[in-house]
Each structure stands twice: as C-alpha cells, then as structure tokens.
Specification:
Layout: E1 2-12, H1 16-27, E2 33-37, H2 45-48, H3 80-94, E3 100-102, E4 106-112, E5 117-122, E6 125-134, E7 157-159, E8 173-177, H4 183-190, E9 196-200, E10 207-208, H5 217-225, H6 229-242, H7 244-250, H8 256-269, H9 273-278, E11 291-292, H10 296-300, E12 305-308, E13 312-316, E14 319-322, E15 327-329, E16 332-335, E17 350-351, H11 358-365, E18 381-383, H12 396-417, E19 419-424, H13 426-440, H14 444-447, H15 468-474, E20 483-487, E21 497-499
Parallel strand pairs: 1-2, 1-6, 2-3, 4-17, 6-18, 7-16, 8-9, 8-16, 9-12, 10-11
Antiparallel strand pairs: 1-21, 4-5, 5-6, 13-14, 14-15, 19-20
Helix pairs in contact: 1-12, 12-15
C-alpha cells in the first residue's frame, strides 16, 4: 500500500518562479500547497551556476521581486552569491520554506481526467494535486556538446552550470568550449591563474560595455531611508531596458547606435588586427543574446590565452583536435554550451488529457502556450517562464510576476466559481500564437541569425516579441471565457490516503 500525499497546489521548482508562486498563492490564502525541489536548497539557476565570475547581466534593482526590494546590493550588477543569498532570505522572511520538500525529483506528471486531478510521481512517493505549477525554469538542464571522443577524455570535464569546485585550475591547461553568457564571465576569471587557456569559438558574440560600479555605503543608506527612491531607480532601469525593444521589434534603425557601440568596444579593447577580425560578429545585433563585459576582450588578448576558431573534430584522452589538424593539449575541459530551452527533458514527463507528453505535443505542433502560461489539453497546469515569455533585454522577474498575477487570479476565479478544472480552448491558443508569430516574423530574432531562441520550425518560442508592459497588461486578469471548465462534482470523487 502506497501513501498518497494529497495537496491542492503542487509547485515544481524552488527558483525565482516557483518561490514566487508559493509566496503569492500563500498571500492569496491558498495555504494547501507544496513545493518540490530536486536540489538541496532554494535558488534554481542562482544555486546551480556558481562558476567563477558568475553574475547577473540585468541591473540589481530590477532583478529582484517587486515585493521584496533589497537596498543592500553591493554593485549595479549583482554577483551570483548575492542573488543566491537574496533568494534564501526572501524565502525565509516570506515563511514558505517549510512548504518546500528538498531532494525530491519529479519523474512523472499525469492528468487523471475522470477525477480532474494530477498524479505526480516523485523520487519520494506520489502526490495527488488539483493544480500543478511548473517552475522548472528555462535554464535548468545543461546542454552538453555531442563531440566525438569526449567521453574518453582523461581529465575533468564539467558544464559551467555544474562547476566542479574540487578541480584546481592553477597552472593547468584549460579548454573552454563556447563563447556565450557564461563563457564571457568564466574566461576572464580563470585566465590569470591557468597555465594556458584555449577558448573555442563557433560564433563571435556581440559584446557591449558593462556599466557596472560598486554602490557606496551612502547610496545604500539612501535606498534604505528615503521612501520610494529604490522604486524610482528600478523604474528608470526598466524604462531604459524597454527602449531596446524598439530596435528589436519596431525599427531596425534603432539598433544602429547599439551596433556602433559594440564595434567601438571591440576596436578599443583589441588592438591585434587578426584577433579583432576573429571576434567581429557576422550576424545582426540582438539576434542572439547581447553580452555585457569589460573583461572579455582583454582576457582573450592575454599571452596565455588562444582563441580557437577552427571547428572541433574530436576529443582525445589528453587534448582536442580541430579541423585544421592541430591537437591542443588539455588538462581540464569546461563546457559552456548553454541549456535545453525549447527541448527541456522535463517536458517528456508531463502527460495531458490525450496521454501525450508536452515534449511530444510541442515537437509536433510547435512549442506554444496561451499567454505563456497554460496549454490546451493540460487542465489546471500553469507553466511559469513558458513559451514566448523569455527576454533578451530585461528582467525575467518582471515576466514571472506578470504570470503570477494571472495564476493568482485563475485560482481565485476557480474558487469563486467552484470549478474543478480549467483548460484553455485550442482555438483560443492557436489564435493567440498566430498573433505572436505575426509580431515576431520581422524581428531580428527570426531574420538575423540562427539561435537558441528558435525552434526547428523557425519560430521563436523562447522570446516575448513586444514591450513587457504589454505582457503585464495581458496577464493582469484571468480570462475565464477562453477556457473550458468543469465544476466541482462533475468529476469522479478524488481519492486520498492509501492506494494499492
């Protein structure tokens, strides 16, 4: 006999989105909730990505919950450790830590249509839930490269999101594969201590100056003591970031000054003509994530650092062989190749009314949801940081809090209307995504290059193609008319307790 854990709301993940959901729902009076977290602590991305130099590329005051401002950020762009501490503090102060079950892996999420509830299998038993909230995040499953022979490499191999702090890099020959957001932070941090560093670049990114600074004590005191000051600074940071959307979705000409700044930044920091040519981006700025760094180009100019642009053909036991026939001796291999975003393995674990997994549905129909939050055929399932909610210019926490508004109002509506289930209508979801695709069609994300923003159909399900305040407006209230609903009592009674 198996003991079933019965709960009203089950939240998967204890990062910014999952914790935000737990806090918001508890504030709305929904106390019968549990958060399942596979890790040993809260934090999600900011717990896992502890590599040297890890930091946020969104201003500190903007990258925090609106309901929990932090006047004590030490810098304009917060380092990983401070963000991790912030999440833990907010969890503790909000009183939701006791609702989290740590070290629990969710293995299957199946909708039981006759009962109108979800059966959730985990590494520590089964849960029976009316509502499931997925806060698994977009940057949670590392994408490892498929390179011939990499499994035979004799030295340490690890992804930046699974950094092995037991490996000492001093005086070692290190290889970093990738030149994305994590690589441009790792490389300058380790270059001064390693014997030699090879950086393998497939595509040169656009890099802009990082306008970072330390916040003096006087400024932090002002944030604590002057009402509204931090909120005003946050609003200014939000507005300045939002301006970038004009170039990405409204006028390509608006990107010209940003592109000129990127070129000037490269020219000023890299004097070597050959290296500068190799580091010059060949795609439209904004198509891939724009990176911020003052130390990336100087690190690549160091005598003990080589930028390798010849494609990797295979890995040997003690080195990397490139297409030009050169074998590069290597002691430690660091993989900075990003994450499974549009093809997260977690989607293979969620089955809806027709028995199809989210992975199968999205592979066949394309990755789409309604308002980035609900998916037709998956009643009472709310996906945070879902399709078409990602940003390349501003704070994802703004988008998460917009979704939390929608989730909270959905729960209140279901309670007020005495509803067992809500399931967005397929025709409504299709119309919404047709409009999204039309808005995305002429943006730099779909016309400027091939990036992780795109799926294999050429759509851009990872990004929101408009101003973020438009998304906030769309998700302010739960629109029940867009949903099929089942009243309480129209389904078979929910069983609880022991089950064979």
């Amino acid at each position: 006999m198996e003991q079933i854990n019965t709960v009203d709301v089950l939240i998967v993940g204890a990062g910014f989105s999952g914790l935000g959901a737990a806090i918001r729902l508890a504030q709305e009076g929904f106390e019968d909730l549990v958060v399942l977290e596979r890790g040993s602590d809260v934090g999600g991305t900011w717990r896992d990505n502890s590599y040297p130099g890890a930091a946020c590329d969104v201003p500190s005051h903007l990258y925090s919950y609106s309901f929990a401002p932090n006047p004590d950020w030490s810098r304009a762009f917060s380092p990983q450790g401070e963000i991790y501490d912030y999440i833990r503090r907010v969890t503790r102060e909000a009183g939701v830590r006791e609702k989290i079950r740590f070290g629990v892996e969710v293995t299957a999420v199946d909708f039981d249509e006759p009962r109108g509830r979800w059966t959730v299998q985990t590494s520590e038993g089964t849960y029976d839930a009316r509502v499931v909230v997925l806060g698994v995040g977009a940057l949670c499953e590392p994408r490892n490269p498929d390179i011939d022979g990499i499994e035979d490499f004799a030295g340490p191999v690890f992804h930046t999101a699974r950094w092995d702090h037991s490996v000492m890099l001093a005086d070692k020959r290190v290889a970093v594969i990738g030149t994305g957001a994590s690589a441009i932070q790792v490389v300058p941090s380790i270059a001064p201590t390693v014997a030699h560093l090879d950086v393998y670049q497939r595509t040169a990114p656009w890099v802009l100056p990082r306008i970072d600074r330390t916040y003096p004590d006087l400024e932090r005191k002002a944030y604590r003591r002057i009402p509204g000051l931090q909120r005003a600074v946050r609003a200014l940071q939000y507005a300045s970031r939002e301006f970038q959307v004009v170039g990405l979705t409204r006028s390509r000409a608006a990107l010209a000054p940003i592109k000129a700044l990127g070129r000037a930044h490269l020219a000023m920091q890299v004097r070597d003509r050959k290296l500068r040519e190799a580091l010059t981006p060949r795609f439209e700025i904004g198509c891939k994530r724009i990176l911020l760094s003052n130390t990336w180009y100087p690190a690549l100019s160091r005598e003990n650092v080589d930028l390798v642009t010849s494609p990797i053909t295979r890995v040997t036991s003690d080195g990397i062989v490139t297409a030009d026939g050169v074998e590069h001796p290597t002691d430690v291999l660091v993989v900075a190749t990003g994450f499974h975003v549009t093809d997260s393995p977690f989607f293979e674990r969620v089955r809806g009314t027709d028995g199809r997994t989210l992975a199968d549905k999205w592979a066949g129909d394309g990755m789409e949801a309604y308002k980035g939050t609900t998916v037709s055929g998956y009643p009472n399932l709310f996906v945070l940081v879902g399709p078409a909610t990602g940003l390349g210019h501003s704070s994802m926490i703004y988008m998460i809090e917009s979704q939390l508004n929608y989730l909270a109002d959905a729960m209140q509506t279901m309670r007020a209307r005495n509803l067992q289930t809500v399931d967005v209508r397929e025709v409504v979801q299709e119309a919404y995504n047709d409009e999204l695709r039309a808005n995305t069609g002429d943006t730099v994300w779909t016309t400027g290059c091939k990036s992780w923003y795109l799926d294999d159909k050429g759509n851009a399900p990872a990004v929101w193609p408009d101003f973020t305040f438009v998304f906030r407006r769309e998700t302010r209230e739960f629109d029940l008319s867009a949903y099929r609903r089942t009243p309480v009592g129209a389904t078979e009674p929910s069983s609880s307790g022991a089950r064979a």
